[in-house]
């Protein structure tokens, strides 16, 4: 009886693992195919069946992608994406930290109104207001610029809301102790609130970096100059129009390159990220 | 060191009056305890002195300087909070040094003053630790250290011991008393625990529903409570209150008898009769809970070695009539003639 139970649990254990392994393989397979495609030559891809093992064109394809690309060198597009993603993530965090600080710690006329206004913007997806936003950005002459890429996406109701919730769990006594210690509001923010929020900030940075990195529609609209292309939209731009022949190995190499920075960010900040989501250190 | 005066201070939150006018002159180095039940306004009063709440009317002065509109940091006060309010991401050293750092004190002096306080509070081995790595008692000490290093003119304590277990509370109580004596800093201490109030205070303010019912030295307050509320609040177990007519008296409404002033006598030989409901033997003393013939409850405290009657037995209760506390219908004390 006892043995049977152990055996049952053992079997369940194995089933779980097999299930998970299959899941991982299913999800990983397209990525593997992309990787394989980025290491072979163009004729090998187009002649079925497609190879399932890496070829010998790895360095050749990646060098070609990074240095010359199709419309613009991928290295340049990576840099553009990096500027945009970091700009959006850092900007969003700074702005939402400050607005949450204002909403939680200061009593000013219209405080509620402002909070709800910010909250309201959550209900409007970017796509809904993309035309007016384009108008504004265009009239400011910010097309084909980093500021045009970053500023329209920099306000974040979600992050403001998140920090507001976190600040509200910080005991009032702490703010009072800081006041008695002689800390003015910004000093309190900088010395106490900010270090206490660091795990939240890290978690948010990861999410927002990926959000910024994966922006597609907005960069597609406002960057007409290939040198301002970001990598995610750049991949689409590489697709041939009309009778051109697609350079699939280079496109696949670009896709793999586009995936790397978010992976690096997630892996390197994993510890902080999970701590930020799981526990609140008080 | 400084004098502190509170003159007819009132506080209103919206339309609710929380404090109805409290006045006290605190001498240099005096330890004042504000005691009262929850919601009596004691913490609000302290927070007004700290500058964390605005003063609706009246005046607070420290060393003769009007403080009503002065920022907390400029009042030269230090406060110990109920939950310690330590900065969780800072080490013990940084917690204690933070106020000095903001004030722009030179680094060497900060180190010296913090070291001095740490030594005084036996915190030296923990200077590099974070608050979450400390026990409750140690956190409490850090909170005190943070107050000490600033060399304030007034110490404010907001129920600092209420989060500690009973044994530690007694120990920290002694430490606070000893420290305050040694430093000689004028202190204001809020608590709901009358034992803390009795043991710590040079003088205490007994607050009841936003009023200072009585201000005086602990033993004076115990022996001569000004109101029925004070008589019931100070002293443990609480004073027994009997309706005067059940004892056949007139001229007063209620008569208070402290449990420690009453004793058991033979039935009908005392001033009242009662049935013993149950006895709590605490070792050194025994508390007897009786129901009087009139239906009122009466608690009596006797020596632990004295014989205890069986439960349900009828006993007589006697006390010295000179030590009775008389109160009128408004709850105010009526002095016994002679």
What does this protein structure show overall?
- The complex is a heterodimer of chains A (282) and B (338).
- With 282 residues, chain A is an all-alpha fold.
- Chain A is built from 15 helices and no strands.
- Chain A has helices spanning 2-37, 42-46, 58-67, 74-105, 111-121, 130-139, 146-150, 157-169, 172-180, 185-196, 198-213, 217-222, 231-238, 248-268, 270-278.
- In chain A, helix 3 packs across helix 14.
- Chain A is globular, with a radius of gyration of 24 Å.
- With 338 residues, chain B is α+β, with helices and mostly antiparallel strands.
- Chain B is built from eight helices and 19 strands.
- In chain B, helix 2 runs parallel beside helix 4.
- Chain B starts with a strand and ends with a strand.
- Classes of the chains: A mainly alpha (282), B alpha+beta (338).
- At the A-B interface, helix 9 and helix 10 of A face strand 6 and helix 2 of B.
Going across the biggest sheet of chain B, name each strand in turn.
Answer: 6-7-8-3-9-10
| CA-based gyration radius of chain B | 24 Å
Strand content of chain B: 25-35%
Coarse structural class of chain B: alpha+beta
- Low-confidence regions of chain A: none
What helical percentage do the residues of chain A reach?
over 70%
Please indicate the count of domains of chain B.
Answer: 2
- Output the helix-strand order of chain B: EEEHEEEHHHEHEHEEHHEEEEEEEEE
CATH secondary-structure class of the largest domain in chain A: Mainly Alpha
Count of DSSP strands of chain A: 0
CATH superfamily of the largest domain in chain B: P-loop containing nucleotide triphosphate hydrolases
- Please, how many helices of chain A? 15
Domain ABC transporter (chain B): 4-234
Organism (chain B): Seohaeicola zhoushanensis
Protein name (chain B): sn-glycerol-3-phosphate import ATP-binding protein UgpC
Pfam family, one (chain B): TOBE_2
